[in-house]
Amino acid sequence: MKRLIALIGVVMLFAVHGFALNENGTSNENLFQIKDINGTTYNIEALPNGLQFKEFKDKVVFLEFFGHKCPPCMKSIPEYIKLQERYKEKLVIVAIEVQGLTTAQTAEFAKQKGINYVTISQADADIFVEHIATRANWSGAIPFLIILDQKGEVQTMQAGLIPKSALESVIETLDTQNNKETNTTNNKDSNTTQK
Fold this sequence. Notes:
Elements: H1 2-18, E1 31-35, E2 41-47, E3 50-53, E4 60-66, H2 71-86, E5 91-97, H3 103-113, E6 118-121, H4 126-135, E7 144-148, E8 154-159, H5 164-194
Parallel strand pairs: 4-5, 5-6
Antiparallel strand pairs: 1-2, 2-3, 4-7, 7-8
């Protein structure tokens, strides 16, 4: 009987610990850290309808899962480079290599391809990749793109190559919507101040 009580106590301790909240009131299982090929750490919070990259607030985020041996992935790299250059004030591209390259190999790959956006080896984001696979019901098909708006809400998830023109249209649409929301909020604030 004492063993049973002790076992129940241990199980409850793990259960409470597993669902413990951090100082922000969010579950630790919803917080992730990933490190890019340059050693920069990014903090991500899983939201009910998306992901919030703490370092990229107020920007559209393209979260791309790609492979170094994937022909459609190779086709998308030059397009992403152009998009990152053109929309650097509005867009952040985060690409996670999921075909087994180490961090050093991913860094060399990014250098060879001239990649100008955040690039990460799965080895430095494994738990996060598992979270995405589970939450998005992602089977591992690549390229796989998740587009997050400025609030971190998922706007699109798609496997396969997406034309650059379609991606530009999404960026422009999200930027226009964000500007309208910002202007509406600013107008409400100034009306409240005037009263």
